[in-house]
Amino acid sequence: MMTSIGQAVDRLKKDFPNLSISKVRYLEDEGLLKPKRSKGGYRVFSEEDIGRLTEILRLQSEQFLPLAVIRERLSGWQYGSAETFEAQSPDGDWELKEDREPVSLEDLFSKAGIGMETVRALETYGLIKTIELGEGQGLDQEDIDVLKVFGKLEKFGIEARHLRIYENLAQRESLLFQQILTPQIKHKSQKLRQKSREDLKELVELTEAFRRCLLKKSLKKANLV
Question: 199: closest CA among 167, 218, 177?
Answer without folding.
Answer: 177
